[in-house]
Amino acid sequence: MPLLLPLAMLIALLVDRLFGEPPARLHPVVGMGQYLGFFGPRLTALPPGPAFAGGALAWLLGALLSAALALSLEMLLMQALRPWTGLPGLLLCALALGLLLKPLLAWRMLAEEVQAVEAALQQSLEAGRARLARLVSRDTRALSAAEVREAAIETLAENLNDSVVAPLFWFALAGLPGAALYRFANTADAMWGYRDEREWSGKFAARADDVLSWLPARLTGLLMIPLWQLPRLLREAGRTPSPNSGWPMAAMALDLGLSLGKPGVYRLNAKGVAPEPAHLPQALRRARLTLWRCSGLLVLLALGWRLA
C-alpha cells in the first residue's frame, strides 16, 4: 500500500487548485481556531507561571484531540475501503484521504490573497495597505507601496512553508494525524505566539511550532534557490528572530534580487532592490515552482518511507 499517501497528496493539491477552500463550517482549521480562541484570553489574564503551564496544557490537549480525530478518520477509511485489496479500493481510499488532507493545506487561497494585494495597490496605496492587513499582524497604516509589497512577498514565502510544504511534509511521514498535528501547532503559533500580553501563554506553542517547522522551512528555502546561492542563504536566513521563517523569505529575496525586511526588526539581502509592481507576479511564479519541487520530493519521501 505504499502508493496510498503519495496519491492522496497529489489529489489534495489538485482539489486545492480546482476548488480552493471548503466552507468555514466544515473547515478543521476554523475549529482549531475556535478552540484556541476559547482558551487564549483566559490564559493571557493569568500571571506568567500559570499562563505558561496553562498554555502548554491547552496546547497538548488540542494537539492530542486534533491528531486523535485525524487518526480515527484515517482508520475508518482504511477499514471501510480496504485499499490493500486492489486498485479500486486504493483509488477510493486515496481520494477520500486526499479530500481530508486538503483543508490542512492552502496554496490557492494564499496565492489569491497575495495577488489581491498588488491589485489593490494599483487602485491606491490605502487600498493596498488595507488588503495587506488581512495577511499580516503588523501595523500597515504607515507602510509605503514598496513596504506593502515587501510584506506581501515575505508572507507568500513564509506561508508557502507553513500552509503547504510543512503539512505535506508531516503527512508524508505520519499520515493525516501528522498533518493535523502540524496544522494545529501552526495555528496556535499564529494566534498565541507573540511577544506581547500573550507571550507567556503562547511560549510553548511558539516553541512547538519552531520544532515542527524546522525541517520543512529549510527544505522550502533550499529548493527555491540555485545551489550556488546556498552560502548566502545560510548567512541571510539567520537574520530573522524566527529560526525558520528566514529560510524561505531569504531564499525569495536572493532569488529575485530583492531587499526584504520588517522595519526596525531585520533586513534580508540588504543590497537588493525594493520591490516594484512586476516583482509580485515573479514571486508567485517562483513560489509555485518551489511548491512543485517540494511536492515532488515529498511524494517520493512518502513512497520511500513505506517501501523501506
Helix content range of the residues, please? Answer: over 70%
CA-based shape: globular
Order of helices and strands: HHHHHHHHHHEEH
> How many DSSP helices?
11
Structural class by helix and strand composition: mainly alpha
Strand sequence of the main sheet, in spatial order? 1-2
Task: Return residue spans where pLDDT drops below 50 for at least 5 consecutive residues.
Answer: none
N-C termini distance:
12 Å
- What about the largest sheet? 2 strands, antiparallel
Number of distinct beta strands: 2
Average pLDDT value? 95
How big is the Rg? 20 Å
Approximate strand percentage: under 5%
Key attributes of the depicted protein:
308 residues; mainly alpha; two-stranded antiparallel ribbon; 11 helices; 2 strands; 2% strand
Summed up:
With 308 residues, this protein is an all-alpha fold. It has eleven helices and two strands.
Overall description:
Helices cover 73% and strands 2% of the residues. The protein has 11 helices and 2 strands; from the N terminus they run H-H-H-H-H-H-H-H-H-H-E-E-H. It has helices at residues 4-19, 28-44, 48-81, 87-101, 107-123, 125-132, 145-192, 199-222, 230-236, 246-256, 279-307, and strands at residues 260-262, 266-268. Strand 1 and strand 2 form a beta hairpin. It starts with a helix and ends with a helix.
SSE order and pairing:
Blueprint: H1 4-19, H2 28-44, H3 48-81, H4 87-101, H5 107-123, H6 125-132, H7 145-192, H8 199-222, H9 230-236, H10 246-256, E1 260-262, E2 266-268, H11 279-307
Antiparallel strand pairs: 1-2
Helix pairs in contact: 1-4, 1-11, 2-3, 2-7, 3-4, 3-7, 3-8, 5-6, 5-7, 6-7, 7-8, 7-10, 7-11, 8-10, 9-10
